[in-house]
Design goal:
single chain; 80 residues; mainly beta; two-stranded antiparallel ribbon; 1 helix; 6 strands; 8% helix
Length: 80
């Protein structure tokens, strides 16, 4: 999905991992980084929904990383 010089980073619900329809997608494009947010992000004007979220990262590497993140600093683009 991503080449060696390309990073694709998406904030998605963890439920994106589920689904028989996406099984072929995950086989073809395995995620390289999955950073699960321990706190639900505020996407609705200060409110949160009942879904869990994670940063999904594809970067063309062979390495896979799964971590629980305390928070994400969008200003400095760092996952803590």
């Amino acid at each position: 999905m991503a080449g060696k010089d390309t990073d694709i980073i998406m904030l998605l619900r963890l439920a994106f991992l589920e689904s028989k329809k996406r099984r072929d997608f995950w086989r073809r494009y395995p995620v390289n980084g999955l950073y699960v947010l321990s706190e639900r992000p505020s996407l609705m004007g200060g409110k949160t929904d009942a879904a869990a979220y994670a940063w999904f990262i594809w970067n063309g590497s062979e390495k896979q990383v799964v971590k629980m993140s305390e928070r994400v600093n969008l200003v400095s683009n760092t996952i803590i």
